[in-house]
Amino acid sequence: MPKVLKSAVPVEQVAARRTDVAERVRAIIADIRERGDAAVRDYSAKFDSWSPESFRLSPEQVDQIVARVPAQVLEDIRFVQDQVRTFARHQRDSLREFEVETLPGVHLGQKHVPVAAAGAYVPGGRYPLTASAHMTIVTAKVAGVPRVAACTPPIRGEVPDATVAAMHLAGADEIYLLGGVQAVAALAVGTETIGRVDLIAGPGNAYVAEAKRQLFGEVGIDLFAGPTEVLVVADQTADPFVVAVDLLSQAEHGPDSPAVLITTSEAVAREVLDHVEALLPGMPTRDFAEPAWRDHGEIHVVDSLDEAFALADTYASEHVQVLTAEPRQALEKMRDYGALFLGPGTCVSFGDKVIGTNHVLPTRGAARYTGGLWVGKYLKTVTYQEVTNSESSVRLGEVCGRAARVELFEGHARSGDVRAAGFRRGELSWNPA
Ligand SMILES: NC(=O)c1ccc[n+]([C@@H]2O[C@H](COP(=O)([O-])OP(=O)(O)OC[C@H]3O[C@@H](n4cnc5c(N)ncnc54)[C@H](O)[C@@H]3O)[C@@H](O)[C@H]2O)c1
Ligand SMILES: N[C@H](CO)Cc1c[nH]c[nH+]1
Ligand SMILES: [Zn+2]
């Protein structure tokens, strides 16, 4: 019989917190629309103790910051950016542009055009999320975005040196030390000093994710990528200590980060619970991990792996770590997740920091309808058409006239009529004299 060994806080409590966040974000966006840069400055001072002369870093400031970063850190940034770039290039090369002739002289085509300007949000209010610079900016540049305006918040008034270095090395065209709703809103609506962009990509806390959600439409967004989530599917072969470490590795992101275990082994579940309790007090980030585990930690014991995968799908979790004897089964059995981590040889932290797949992933159920950030999110898949055969123009014009009139669209019908009649009588041609 399925059993719940640990459950999370009731959904109503979570919903109430979300409503509160949504209202605050709405008020900040409205204020920035009205007062522009002055409001941006006020919120940056309030939330991040940061109110410089200019939020944009000059090339000289960037050079000074990069010079402060230890050589090993820069080498690691370059290594990881190479991994991210390699994977992103494969994604780009997998995209097909084509033109097909569907009727004589009827040419239909598809192209992928990068957005002209993208905002790359690199989070970091609580701790530096340097790796998000690789994920957002390198990927945008592989997609061919000409203007990438990248924002990251200072951390309690301090410049995140490694993150700025990563933004620079990734190829950002503009770097702003600005975070939160104020950064997202400025990029979306444009202020005197920050030019508006066409699309904003990147992860963030509940405020950042909600700001992107509210501004969607006025600006494009990559996906809903809010507070981190992890779900582990484990059988009796899993090492309970590894499971506990992996759950806490993501719970440390913040007090609103869910960590869920679904296992077929009650013995593993009980050991995991003990390890988590033992590990938590020694975690330097326990201020985030403890409330996350207390309020959003769950342990479910189920009867079979099929049941485990089916239950896991209902969470549509951002990350799913599979620690079972045959982890690749998950590729067939699961549908709803941001990314899968198969077997004990890899982990969510590899995806977060080093391996090369993109760590900007859907949260709060968005994995039901989207995958994570990738080259394609910066591209617009557009179509075009051309007809170079008069008989086809006549035929399409006649069908168009009839089809449009069924829907009472007389204006549309006439566009079809003039082509049908014009090409039939030879009054229309491709090279008019
Ligand atoms: N889903 C993903 O792909 C993914 C990837 C990486 C990180 N994340 C998430 O990103 C988040 C990073 O969080 P963070 O806080 O360190 O950085 P952040 O950059 O997302 O947010 C920092 C900003 O939050 C704003 N803020 C803080 N308190 C506020 C309040 N009370 N009202 C309004 N605005 C407020 C501040 O303006 C600050 O600049 C974590 O939740 C992490 O889980 C998600
Ligand atoms: N786990 C985060 C995605 O939700 C990504 C990340 C970056 N650094 C640490 N973690
Ligand atoms: Zn992480």
UniProtKB/TrEMBL annotation:
Classification via PROSITE patterns: HISOL_DEHYDROGENASE
InterPro entries: Ald_DH/histidinol_DH (IPR016161), Histidinol_DH_CS (IPR001692), Histidinol_DH_monofunct (IPR022695), Hstdl_DH (IPR012131)
Pathway in which the depicted protein is active: Amino-acid biosynthesis; L-histidine biosynthesis; L-histidine from 5-phospho-alpha-D-ribose 1-diphosphate: step 9/9
Cofactor(s) needed for function: Zn(2+)
Recorded superkingdom: Bacteria
Keywords: Amino-acid biosynthesis, Histidine biosynthesis, Metal-binding, NAD, Oxidoreductase, Zinc
Any one GO molecular function term: oxidoreductase activity
SUPFAM superfamilies reported in the protein's UniProt record: ALDH-like (SSF53720)
Pfam families registered for this protein in UniProt: Histidinol_dh (PF00815)
Transmembrane region(s): none
Family from the record: Belongs to the histidinol dehydrogenase family.
Protein name: Histidinol dehydrogenase
Organism: Amycolatopsis thermophila
